[in-house]
Amino acid sequence: MAIDLSTLNPPQRDAVLHGDAPLVVFAGAGSGKTRVITHRVANLVAERGIPPWRILAVTFTNKAAQEMRERLEHLVPGAARDLQVGTFHATCARLLRRYHDRIGLRRDFTIYDEADQRAMITRVLRDLKMDEKRFPPKSIAGRIERAKQEMVEPSEIDAGVVDTPHVRAIVTEYEKRMAAASALDFGDLIYRMVRALENDEVLRKELATRFQHILVDEFQDTNHSQLRMVLALASVHRALCVVGDDDQSIYRWRGADRRNILDFRRHFPDAHVVKLEQNYRSTKRILRASHAVISRAFDREPKELWTDNDEGAKVEVHRLNTEREEANLVVTTARALKNEGKSLADLAIFYRIHAQSRVLEEALRAASLPYRVVGGVRFYDRAEVKDLLAYLRVLSVPEDDVSLLRIINVPARGIGKTTIDRLLDRAAAAGNGVWEACKAQSEERGGNKLGDFVGLIESLRAKVADLDLPGLARTVLDETGYVQALQAENTPEADARLENLAELVGSMEQFVAEAEEPTLTAFLERVTLQTDAEGGDSKGENEIVTLMTVHAAKGLEFPVVIVAGMEEQLFPFRGLEQDADPEELEEERRLAYVAFTRARERLILSWASTRYFFGNLRDCTRSRFIDELPGSDVKFVGGTGDRPSFGRANAGWIEDRGSTRVERFDARPSRVLSTTAGPIEAKVTRKSGGQVSLRVGQSVKHVRYGQGKVVRFGTGDPPNVDVEFPGHGKKTIRADFLDPA
Ligand code: ATP
Ligand code: MG
């Protein structure tokens, strides 16, 4: 069947039909870059007869890979199965397994996620008797990741003058243990693949010959090791097609390098360049707003998008008093959509940092509106799910220490900390894994709890060959007493855990029915490599509001988008200890551009003039990105929070607090400009439960500022209260943090 090119504009068609020389599609958001990749793959197979297994497509999410498969399946039934498509990590995992013997790996190697990796580092620190405070596992993990991204031998890590020898010792031991456990971390997947390709000429030739076409989406967010991999794989046919947008490079903190796309022609001087300028996603107003923000970046390739779409509704900027009011805005918007007969799936809420989701979730829950948080605590990160997977991993590779230690006393079987410490010492002394230590120790002593555990694992291992994956999972849950322990708990939490386990076993059933290779290893690989941009839960995708960080939203689109927390310090984000770094601000700007350009019909930005931020109540000013929007495309709701033009420039600002307008300055007490007699009394439900009544003039206590007097009530629920504290001046405090003195 021929593919339909009528749904492509001329430059898109040019890119889809371009022959075998290198190709770069360089274009702004929503211009159809991903669509070009999908159509190009379909065209290669359907029109040019390229076997799907000779095409490698790298997508940003597994979901995008899935979509590409579906599209291809529709065009060329039966072809999609063989298409090599996936994220960088999934692609490398697959190739490493395929060529494991050449690369010196076990075929069923385990992939450690970030939590597993940290657990391994913690163990290394323990055995090397090094201090976790001085060498926090998280930062060691970061150094390891960075070294691998840069293709630096981990043992050659440069960690600064003083620490380098220590860090190298930790990392060397870590690498040794990972090898003993047959485990690879995320960084390894790409690092090992690149090293294999660059050191093994025969392998490189073989793979580079096999892949006749290579296509990479979101190329602006590739890092150095990923670039090296692509270059090696494209070294024979050079039929490489990359698409991307330097304005949407938002993973610098993970080593992404925009130069990879900007300098593409340095690697391929003959590359054909296609630029796409028509945006099909957003309204004119949304596009102008997005352009206003990105065009101020100091370092970018100039490009402007246009659209045939409607002018559309103005971009709304809502100013709220507190983050709770902001959460109410989300609820009201969702309800209004429902009342208009639209789907809740049309609505997405973005925020800059994960911590913002809690308040939003609470409000949605209270309003009984279904939602899902993408990339939060994922289904596969839940304790019971990880426990079952850890059992399955141990059954496949008992040397997997991290998994073994996870389940050695789960459910509780009387193997206490002392025993585990002894095992760890023994393993460290003998230079082998915990499983060996378990066996040795239980043999010496006999008839003990450790012996029962070893017996249990061995008897389960004996059943692996006879059972399919879901059958094995059920047997594990039953014979380890895991299910019985949860049933005995008889609490709602335990019930929820049982449901999650049932869901997990159900997903294995489905996996076994559909997968090309229905093995445990393949299943584990799939769940470990899910990216931030896909939730683990597949149920109930419809009629549900989506919450996610802006980072996870890349490549996606929604009819209605709310970007919450559009405040200075939060978006653009600035950590408490950081100095303003122009490079970081640039990345924040690109992030705002990504956020705004996800919206198709309506874009709503919200900000709160006070917000609890890492436990502190903070006065906030609206984000500079709001100030940059073209006035005629914006509708302000709830006041602009404008700065007064009199007095010192930018020294203060005016707030609308419902019935009161207040002029506020950083260094001086606020001045009420006008009021329509705000409330003089408020009933407040305390955090600890119980109600108190506060009035203007009353003495109150606050943990940090001590005793003060209520001056005024603001809006919000619970209300904000202005309190004059002798020695601290006037502070705005949320009422439930005050006690009558
Ligand atoms: P991003 O930069 O956000 O990743 P993109 O450039 O990859 O965006 P796509 O996601 O491929 O853009 O396309 C954006 C939207 O426009 C999609 O809904 C797509 O179906 C639609 N679209 C793209 N090209 C066309 C076209 N020629 N005709 C109609 N719709 C199109
Ligand atoms: Mg895209």
Description:
- This is DNA 3'-5' helicase.
- Keywords: ATP-binding, DNA-binding, Helicase, Hydrolase, Isomerase, Nucleotide-binding.
- Its EC number is 5.6.2.4.
- Residues 644-651 have low confidence and may be disordered.
- A hairpin with a 2-residue loop joins strand 18 (652-657) and strand 19.
- With 741 residues, this protein is an alpha/beta fold.
- Among the domains are: 110-181, Arc Repressor Mutant, subunit A; 315-378 and 537-637, 3-Layer(aba) Sandwich (Rossmann fold), CATH 3.40.50.300; 381-532, Orthogonal Bundle (PCRA, domain 4); 681-740, SH3 type barrels (Roll), CATH 2.30.30.
- It is globular, with a radius of gyration of 29 Å.
- The site of adenosine-5'-triphosphate (ATP) has 17 residues, from helix 2.
